[in-house]
Amino acid sequence: MPKDPELLAHQQWLGYLQPVGLVVSPPALVSAQAFVNTNIAVEHATFLAQLQTEPVAAIGNLKALLTDPGLFGWKESDLVPADDPRAKDLEVVLSDYHETLKPTFAVPDGQGWLMLLREWPLGTDLDRDAADSTRNWQASPQARFERLLRETGVPIGLLFNGTQLRLVYYPRGESAGHVTFPVAAMNNVAGRPVLAALLMLLGADRLFTLPDRQRLPALLAESRRYQNTVSTELAEQVLAALFELVRGFQAADDQRKGELLRDILAHEPDQVYAGLVTVLMRLVFLLYADDRGLMSDDEVYIRFYSVTGLFERLREDAGRYPDTMDHRYLSLIHI
Q1: 135-147 burial by CB neighbour count: b if 16+ within 10 A, else e?
Q2: Alpha-carbon distance 72 to 64, whole Å?
């Protein structure tokens, strides 16, 4: 079955970046009409002009990048520095560690704070605990930033170290997720889809001017709601499939006058349930891998070995032999 090209485009750039946890989901992006612009040659040239090349390709000035009208298009007033009196409430004092966490910039949204930004020195490992012995809290920049977001109640953040831009989402009462945009990946023509995705998420229109349901906060929240709905529906489908398998095994056992399952039920009855659940979980994994394009695209595999290929063959047979489908397992047993 052909996929929606917009959905596929989102799956591709997310598959390349491999987010940690849930940040955005392709269906939520499509629903919010957030599409990846494939024609960004001009924007890419503007982005490259913002980079420094020594010692590595990196963004030298994050504020200049975000306020560039040819790229993200933010206004100067959209970035409130940490020393501004308005940002005083964004300082988090860790008395046990004698430290204070605060952002580099905060983005207002008229009713509070939309996003926090935290800059680190060029090339800082965002996931490694600080080795500086002068710091009492030996935590990574990511852990520090998550603590800042949690304590301030601002769920969206942007973590930056010159070579990486990391969008972090940490809604209250839920787990954190983040997706990292490496500058190296956006430094060539092949990386334009990654830059296009970054512009789509952090452009001024997505943050400030679009209708509320299409802005970044709603998009991130909807992604979480969509994932919860999918998880619930998947659990119900797996349970229904489990009952269907149990009924099938019961019917087969009855037909064999109890010989098929006699030994296992007598000695290890729990293995029947465990085995059926294992089969279903493996099928779910294979379906996910197929959907993400992680399995072989060879025609022989797709037609005769993939789960989706087996489903299509069974659906074709159901149309041809509607009255005998429940007996077809006999031929499989003989094989």
Answers
A1: eeeebebbbbbbb
A2: 10
Is residue 292 scored above 70 in pLDDT?
no
Cα dihedral 126/187/18/130 (nearest 10): -10
The letter for the amino acid at 84 is D
Q: Which amino acid is at 127?
A: D
Q: Which of 298, 10, 73, 89 is nearest to 206 (CA)?
A: 73
Q: Of 70, 6, 3, whose CA–CA distance to 33 is shortest?
A: 6
What tokens appear for 259 in the block?
Answer: 């010989």
Q: How far is CA 10 from CA 14, 17, 47, 109, 224, in A?
A: 6, 11, 21, 27, 16
Whole-angstrom distance, CA of residue 174 vs CA of residue 330: 48
Judge whether 151 and 139 are in contact, CB under 8 Å. no
Percent of the chain beyond pLDDT 90?
Answer: 41
**Distance between CA atoms of residues 179 and 170, nearest Å:** 12
Residues in CB range of 274: below 8 A, 6 or more apart: none
Cα-based distances in Å from 185 to 25, 41, 57, 193, 292:
21, 15, 10, 10, 21
Residue pLDDT, tens place only, 121-166: 999 999 988 655 555 778 899 999 999 999 999 999 999 999 999 9
Q: pLDDT tens digits, residue range 316-335?
A: 877 777 777 666 653 333 33
The token pair that represents 149 in the structure block: 């977001």
